[in-house]
Amino acid sequence: MNEQKLTSKDELTNLIKDKGIKTWEEAIEFVRCLPYGRNSNRTDFKLVISEQKGSCSSKHAMLKKLADVNDIPNIKLILGMYQMNETNTPKIGNVLTKNNLDFIPEAHCYLNIDKKRIDITTSKSNFNKLEHYIIEELEIQPEQVAVFKVNYHKEFIKNWIKETKSELEFSQLWNIREKCIENLTQ
User: Fold this and answer.
1) Which helix H or strand E contains 109, and what residues bound it?
2) 54 pairs with which residues across the strands?
3) SS3 135
4) What is the pLDDT of residues 117-135, one digit of tens each?
5) How far is 22 from 45, CA to CA, in rounded Å?
């Protein structure tokens, strides 16, 4: 595949070009190497570059936006619900075990590039670790990683609590999930 030059004159492209990045492939590697962390504003994708960090949502949404403004084809932003457990997401520690849970449904964003799933959340991310735990997937737009993704995730968990007849209430489960995510940033 030929390298795809970043040719747009928009603010996001200019910001990433200021880092010496000239191609789509270089942008992917740059973002992959940034540390995991939540940005100060979920809807401002430029913060991935200026704050030098990002979550699965912000990193992949920023790259999808970059692909769109630079007319790079066959890039989809995917919201996948998967069974987050201590095996496929080891950095969550033993939070689930302490709470007698095998897994929690987690919303995870990644890209589908030329029909291949790519996870660039961290330099060690490998979609193969999650592949067998995917519950469902849907294509979303970058602007949906904030409100839509969070609401979708919360509704999914509420339905999951009913279906599994869990004794935990939503707020308890969401707090357990937040502790897992907190562990990922350490």
Assistant:
1) strand 104-113
2) 36
3) strand
4) 999 999 999 899 899 999 9
5) 18
Residue at 92: amino acid letter = I
Whole-number Å distance between alpha carbons of 91 and 181: 9
- The residue ranges of every structural domain in the chain are 11-69, 75-184
Q: Own/partner pairs for 38-44, CB < 8 Å, 24+ apart?
A: 38/185, 42/145, 42/146, 43/143, 43/146
Long-range contacts at 85-90 (CB < 8 A, ≥ 24 apart): 85/133, 88/129, 88/130, 88/133, 89/180, 89/184
DSSP structural state of residue 149: H
Q: At 161, which helix (H) or strand (E)?
A: helix 147-164
**For residue 112, how far is the Cα from the chain centroid?**
12
pLDDT tens-digit series, residues 38-51: 899 988 999 999 99
Tokens of 46: 């430029």
Q: Stretch 68-83: mean pLDDT, rounded?
A: 97
Q: Residues, the chain, total?
A: 186
- Which residue carries 């200019």 as its tokens? 14
Contact 140, 92 (CB under 8 A): no
Q: Which residues contact 160 (CB under 8 A, 6 or more apart)?
A: 105, 166
